[in-house]
Amino acid sequence: MSKPKIALVVGSTRAARFADTPVEWIAKIAKSHADIEVEIVDLRDFPLPFFDEVASSAWVPSQSEVAQRWQKKVAEFDGFIFTAAEYNHGPTAVLKNAMDYAAKEWNKKPAGFVGYGGVGGARAVEQLRMHAVELQMAPTKTAVHIVWGDFLAVRQGEKKLADIEHLNQAANGLIEEITWWAKALKVAREADVLAEEAKAA
């Protein structure tokens, strides 16, 4: 079996976003795990309109060219780690919109989160876990929560995320859990494909 491919999705597109800092940090940790492949996927590269299709792509093919390109990109991966900024006790609109613009491409794949904000992005992560379940993903129990004190220390240049040991431990725990689920679900999805091919034969 080939190595599972994990996307690190940058879940904010603001010019002043913090997201680049945690995604670069966790990408370095993830790439030290030899049993997975890792790619950073930036939503800035997929300027999706607010959802305006006649229906979900689960039922009707999307008309937007960007949406089609996004769906093909999502389909490449076996698991996802999303950065989750918290705005008004919830996730960014751009990340929720990106999740809505794909359907089957998310199915039966693990989802993990790196949250930051007031309470480490915990409220945004909880909402995203519910969205992930509806998309037939397997959200992980383990997450990374960059709480306000750590966030400010990093933002103000007093520390780097790599200097904060409890965050390094959480990041490694998240990656190990994502890797386990990605391997298990990759085998299961491949078995489903073989079963369907056998039926059609």
What would you say this structure looks like, in words?
The structure is a single chain. The chain is α/β, with parallel strands linked by helices and 201 residues long. It has one domain: Flavodoxin domain (Rossmann fold, 3-Layer(aba) Sandwich), CATH 3.40.50. It is built from 6 helices and 6 strands, in the order βαβαβαβαββαα. Strands 1, 2, 3, 4, 5 and 6 form a 6-stranded parallel sheet that branches. Helix 1 links the parallel strand 1 and strand 2. The chain is globular and about 60 Å long. It starts with a strand and ends with a helix. InterPro entries: Flavoprotein-like_sf (IPR029039), FMN_Rdtase-like_dom (IPR005025), NAD(P)H-dep_reductase (IPR050712).
* Major pleated sheet: 6 strands, parallel
Shape: globular
Q: Which regions contain 5 or more consecutive residues with pLDDT less than 50?
A: none
End-to-end separation in angstroms reads 24 Å
**CATH architecture name:** 3-Layer(aba) Sandwich
Short overview:
The protein is α/β, with parallel strands linked by helices and 201 residues long. The protein has a single domain (5-200), classed as Flavodoxin domain (Rossmann fold), CATH 3.40.50.
Kindly list the characteristics that best describe this protein.
single chain; 201 residues; alpha/beta; 6 helices; 6 strands
Q: What topology does this entry show?
A:
Blueprint: E1 5-10, H1 20-31, E2 37-42, H2 65-75, E3 79-85, H3 93-100, E4 110-116, H4 122-134, E5 138-139, E6 144-146, H5 148-155, H6 165-200
Parallel strand pairs: 1-2, 1-3, 3-4, 4-5, 4-6
